[in-house]
Amino acid sequence: MRNSSNNVDGLTIQKLFDGTDHYLIPPYQRNYAWREPEISQLIQDIIDSSKLSDKQYYIGTLVTYHRNDGKYEVIDGQQRLTTLSLLMMVLLRNDEIDQDTAAKSNINDNQKLILEFASRKKSTDTLLALSSKGKSNTKCGLESGYDICKKVLSERLKESVIKIEEFVKFLLKNVTIIRVIVPKDTDLNHYFEIMNNRGEQLEKHEILKARFMEKLTCTRDKSTFAKIWDACANMDKYVQYAFSPDERKEIFSDTWNSFTCNDFDSLSISENAATDSDNAKVIDDIINSKGDGLTNTDKNKDNLATERFSSVVNFPNFLLHVLRIFVKTSSSTEDSDTTLMSKIPLDDKRLLDSFEIEFKFSKVANNETSSIELIKKIKDFAYTLLRSKFLFDKYIIKREVKDSGVDGWGLKSLMNTSNYNNTFSEKNNDTSEDISPEQRNIILLLSMFHVSAPAMLYKYWLNGALYYLFINSKNCNDINSTYYKDYLQSLARKFVFDRYLTNTSADYDDMIYQTTKDISHFDEKNSDSLLQYGNIKNNLIFNYLDYLLCTIDNESMLFNIDSENKISFDENYKKGYKDVKAKFTFTFRSSVEHYYSQNPNSETGQNIINDDRLHRFGNLCLVTHEQNSSLSNNDASSKKTRYNKKHLTDKKPDSMKQYLMMSYREWNPDSITDHHKKMINILEIDASNIRN
Description:
alpha+beta; 3 domains; 7-stranded mixed β-sheet; 14 strands; 9% strand
């Protein structure tokens, strides 16, 4: 596609990387910043599009300035362009492609290094090293991005059952990026500022709001709907803050901590309290008027609340979760759960399409008898949305910035008497000392799920948790902490044993909505191959094991010595284990580290061991990319020395499994085998418990 008058080109990825054009990232651009959520989303978008059709998939816009030296200066779109460059390098170095002649030919013929960074030699050198199948000596976000691309691509292709050659063909031939060339006399710095600050583009959820409201005919209904929508739209604040004191009392009781309304029509919302919704909003109205629904007396308090908490999910994605709950709880069709939910993917790019399938806005005209049913359906959905947001605020973790400035996971209820209480505390208390063992386990499980699935697209655990909360609460104040914890752990078991540690993966929706489904027996013979490096399907396996290690009562089974007495343990590590598991928290980790190095430094005297031991689960743990890079090829003793302060003094390890690995006095093939057997045993015991 070419529009010469407007300097707009539609470039396939094959054309983009054929070496004809070269792109320069200018000094005013920020460093490469995409991490796993963004990279995962881009790769998944390509895979999803390849399955839908063989038509062109437009991956976004690249705004450029054509310099006198022939290079294209990138004004907007550098994160996407850089990620595509890294992805092409991953494909170029992929062993599977080497085995496929067609795929190999396509990549080798079309992949060229087209990108460089002005005034950032380290970044350019890193790209050069990666493109030449070398290894950069610099620590740079680009190398982390490359590692993430490699990991995510492998995981998503396995998950989607897409062959590498099919992916390569679609990527090169059907994925298109729109390149826009700005006029020669453009003030680039000013243009860049405008591109990044204008904020005028209409969001999909705003379009959806307009579609809902244009179908409502009653002024009160419009006002109530708008108030509910705006109250729920800010995921970082508690929904109660968006209502007036009288409305709060009516909806959430005197304590603000219960949900007392039974349906949409019972909500006592002032017609003038919403966001000027006397008539249905058109698109321009919504762009120009985005009220937050806050009373003046609550604005300062709410600003503090917003600064304190951050949500694990955005509003468009939350709407899809609520739509799933709404469809599941109100559907009278005979469709299976899987069929129903397959129509509602957790992909906010398909937000409008998903709601159109359920509500059929385009097929129902305004002010017709046929629209009465739709109006009721819209009101029911709004009620479901408000109730779900209240449950989300109270029973789903948020990232919390504490008074000390340290981030942590929070599970709080909003109260009118003391602001925030720990959700499952009998006292009006907001302190960490008041967290019950059950609440701690719930926080561990929720944060475990979240860090294992950072991409919004794969937060099926959240859908399961919200569905459980929705159907097991009456006034939203009667969730039993023990039952909730048990449900979350059962969901984790299903994911681990029925999807990730089996050759026949169960469907997410079957596991969430068909609660009677049996869990697969954990087979050690199969697990050895499924837990080998390169075959591990999801990081949840590591994280769930860390959770089990935090809750284990019989610590002696972790530190027992075999009959041949080939191993021994560090007494300081043994003594510290109780304190360590009490302080452990989940963080975002996505890099699998070999504790016994894959390529040991010859100066350390560490020998190369066979792949069966090297890549075994017993030699693996989950760390951050930065940690994995910094540890590099150090021997186990050097790594342990680096971690001693964090492990022994601070009692805050990055991984419980890693802590146990470093508890061995020596790390060798015998230690690997011993640790492997113990970890498998813990998984086996857990798998057997769930059938009882």
